[in-house]
Amino acid sequence: ALNIEALDGYLCGLLLSPRPLAKRPGADWLPLIWGSEDAEADPFASGKQRKRLVLAVLRHLRALDHELHQNPQAWEPILSVAEDDEGEWVDALDWCAGFMLAVDLDAAAWEARFQDPEWAELLAPIALLGADDEALTDADRARLDDLSELDALSRSVPEAVLGMAAR
Predict the structure, then answer these.
(1) 165, 148, 144: which is closest to 77 by C-alpha?
(2) Is the CB of residue 109 less than 8 Å from the CB of residue 23?
(3) Under the phi-then-psi rule, with left for phi > 0, alpha for psi from -120 to 50, and beta for the rest, what region is 87?
(4) Are 10 and 94 contacting, i.e. CB atoms less than 8 angstroms apart?
């Protein structure tokens, strides 16, 4: 199942997809939230429990849509923040993994955006932070292992998402 950060990124990815979410049946994207690719298989003890979760997800989705498209200055992604003796570090790995899960649902539609230089620049930090470990080069791993680099990449995510939402 997705944690809250990955869920937030996933829903943002769905909202910013080239394919409108309204044209995508819930059975295509909802099961991934609770860790299944099968719309019939879910972990809920009852239909009531499932309904409560789906309604909560839809409420969050609606709030994100409103903020991203009508009130962008109010939007903030749900990111991990850690503190140490040197300061505060932002970690957007889970958020970006969720976003990339949404991209993977419709990779063919997203391909044109990854090829467009403006979109590619906006997507670059999200794609790097959300990449599967097997897809990373040694240089990418080194960047993500460097806390200051991870922090800088993570802090670039909100601006990148707002740039995508404005297009």
Answers:
(1) 165
(2) no
(3) left
(4) no
- Give 143-155 as a DSSP string: HHHSHHHHHHHHH
Return the structure tokens found at 48.
Answer: 């009531």
Residue count of the chain, please give it: 167
Q: How many CB atoms lie under 10 A from the CB of residue 25?
A: 8
Between CA 132 and CA 59 the distance in angstroms is 29
pTM for this prediction: 0.92
* Residue 95 in tokens: 């958020």
- The answer to whether residues 90 and 125 touch, using CB atoms and an 8 Å cutoff, is no
User: For the purposes of burial, counting CB atoms within 10 Å of the CB of 82, is it exposed (0-12), middle (13-18) or buried (19 or more)?
Assistant: exposed
pLDDT in tens, 47-101: 788 889 889 999 999 999 999 999 999 999 999 998 888 889 999 999 999 999 9
Query: Measured in whole angstroms, how far is the alpha carbon of residue 158 from the centre of its chain?
Result: 11
Q: Which residue has the tokens 């839809």?
A: 58
Q: What totals of helices (H) and strands (E) does the chain contain, helices first?
A: 8, 2
Residue 10 and residue 100 in contact, taking contact as beta carbons nearer than 8 Å: no
Q: State the residue for tokens 């994207």.
A: 29
